[in-house]
C-alpha cells in the first residue's frame, strides 16, 4: 500500500522498519523526523535526523563487533537522541523499539529524551518484533494509535496474500526434500540470523540451520558451521548492503574450512542486501521471503529481486 491521506498527527520514527510501516499505512506526509538510518522509501532522507550513532560503521566487521561489545560491557549507549531537534519538531508520537540496543536507539534513551522536553510531551510507542506474528500485531498497534485501522487491516491482508502465494507455489510443486539453509547475520565473528529469519526460511520451503525463530541471533564458530554442512549459505550482515557484504566476504574466503562447505562446493552461496530487507522487521519482510524463495527455488520463482536484493557469490 502506498496511498497517502491527511492525518492530524506529527510523527517521528526512530527505526527504519517503523518508517517503512508508517509509509505503508499512508502516513508519509505526517512524518516530520527520522533516525539517521531511515532511508526508505525514496525521499525520506530529506526529513530532519533525530538520532546519531557512536559506532564507526566504516571499520571492519570484526572491529565493529569489538566496539559494540565493549560499549555494551560498559553500559554505554550506542545511539543518542537529538533532544533539541525533537523540541523543534514537536511530534505527537515518537516510534521506537525495545528489541535490540545494537540495532537502534533504545526505549530508555527515548524516554529520557522525552522527559527533558519542555514544550511538548509526545506519546512514545515502542515495538519489539521477533517474528511475523509480531509484525501483524505491530501494524494493528500503529494503525489503532493513528486511527487508521481499516488501512492496517488491508495492509496485513495484502502482505499475507503474498506469503500465501509463496507457500502455495512451493506446496504445489510436490518437492519431497528440503534444502538445508544457513543464514549469516554477521561474518566476523560468525553469527547466524535469528528472530524472524528462521521462520522465513521455513516458509520458503527449506530447513533453517543453527538458529531458532523468536530467539536472538547466536554467535557460532567454524566447527559448528562445517558440521551443519549447509546446502545453501545466505549472507545478510546486519546494516550492510550487497557491496559492503562483498568487501567483508574475504574473512570467509580465507578460512581453511571455507571450501569444505557443501554450499561452497556446489556454488550455492548468496549475498543479500540485509540492510534493506532481512534486518528490518517491517513490511519488506515479505520481500525478504520472496527473495529466499527465488534463491531456494529458482525453478519456481522468477528472479525479480536479483542484482537489487541478492546476487550469487563469486568464490
Could you explain how this protein is built, in words?
The structure is a single chain. The protein has 315 residues and is of the alpha/beta class. The protein folds into two domains: 118 residues, Nitrogenase molybdenum iron protein domain (Rossmann fold, 3-Layer(aba) Sandwich), CATH 3.40.50; 135 residues, Rossmann fold (3-Layer(aba) Sandwich). It is 37% helix and 16% strand. It has twelve helices and twelve strands. Strands 7, 8, 9, 10, 11 and 12 form a six-stranded mixed beta sheet that branches. A four-stranded parallel beta sheet has the order 2-1-5-6, with helices on both faces. β1, α1 and β2 form a beta-alpha-beta unit. α5 runs antiparallel to α6 and α6 runs parallel beside α12. The longest helix is centred in the middle third of the chain and has 23 residues. It is globular and about 60 Å long. The protein starts with 10 loop residues before the first strand and ends with a strand. The model has no long low-confidence stretch (mean pLDDT 91).
In percent terms, what proportion of residues is strand?
15-25%
Mean pLDDT, all residues: 91
Q: How many structurally independent domains?
A: 2
Chain oligomer state = single chain
First and last CA, distance? 39 Å
What's the gyration radius in Å? Answer: 20 Å
Q: In CATH, what is the class of the largest domain?
A: Alpha Beta
Shape: globular
- Low-confidence stretches are none
Key attributes of the depicted protein:
315 residues; alpha/beta; Rossmann fold; 6-stranded mixed sheet; 12 helices; 37% helix
Amino acid at each position: 500500500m502506498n496511498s497517502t491521506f491527511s492525518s492530524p498527527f506529527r510523527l517521528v520514527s526512530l527505526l527504519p522498519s517503523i518508517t517503512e510501516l508508517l509509509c505503508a499505512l499512508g502516513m508519509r506526509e505526517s512524518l516530520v523526523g527520522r533516525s539517521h538510518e531511515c532511508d526508505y522509501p525514496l525521499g525520506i532522507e530529506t526529513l530532519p535526523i533525530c538520532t546519531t550513532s557512536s559506532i564507526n560503521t566504516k571499520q571492519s566487521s570484526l572491529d565493529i563487533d569489538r566496539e559494540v561489545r565493549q560499549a555494551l560491557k560498559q553500559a554505554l549507549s550506542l545511539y543518542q537522541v537529538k533532544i533539541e531537534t525533537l523540541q523543534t519538531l514537536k511530534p505527537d508520537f515518537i516510534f521506537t523499539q525495545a528489541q535490540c540496543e545494537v540495532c537502534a536507539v533504545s526505549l530508555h534513551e527515548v524516554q529520557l529524551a522525552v522527559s527533558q522536553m519542555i514544550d511538548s510531551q509526545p506519546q512514545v510507542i515502542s515495538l519489539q518484533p521477533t517474528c511475523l506474528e509480531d509484525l501483524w500485531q505491530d501494524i494493528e498497534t500503529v494503525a489503532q494509535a493513528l486511527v487508521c485501522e481499516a488501512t492496517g487491516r488491508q495492509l496485513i491482508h495484502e502482505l499475507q496474500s503474498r506469503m500465501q502465494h509463496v507457500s502455495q507455489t512451493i506446496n504445489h510443486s510436490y518437492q519431497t526434500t528440503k534444502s538445508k539453509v544457513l543464514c549469516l547475520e554477521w561474518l566476523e565473528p560468525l553469527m547466524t540470523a535469528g528472530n524472524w529469519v528462521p521462520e522465513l526460511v521455513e516458509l520458503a520451503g527449506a530447513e533453517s540451520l543453527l538458529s531458532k525463530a523468536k530467539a536472538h541471533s547466536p554467535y557460532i564458530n567454524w566447527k559448528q558451521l562445517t558440521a551443519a554442512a549447509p546446502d545453501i549459505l545466505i549472507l545478510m550482515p546486519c546494516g550492510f548492503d550487497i557491496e559492503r557484504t562483498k568487501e567483508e566476504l574475504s574473512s570467509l574466503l580465507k578460512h581453511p574450512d571455507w571450501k569444505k562447505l557443501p554450499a561452497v562446493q556446489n556454488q550455492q552461496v548468496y549475498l543479500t542486501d540485509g540492510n534493506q530487507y532481512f534486518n528490518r522487521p517491517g513490511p519488506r519482510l515479505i520481500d525478504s521471503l520472496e527473495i529466499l524463495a527465488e534463491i531456494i527455488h529458482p525453478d519456481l520463482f522468477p528472479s525479480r529481486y536479483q542484482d537489487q536484493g541478492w546476487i550469487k557469490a563469486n568464490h
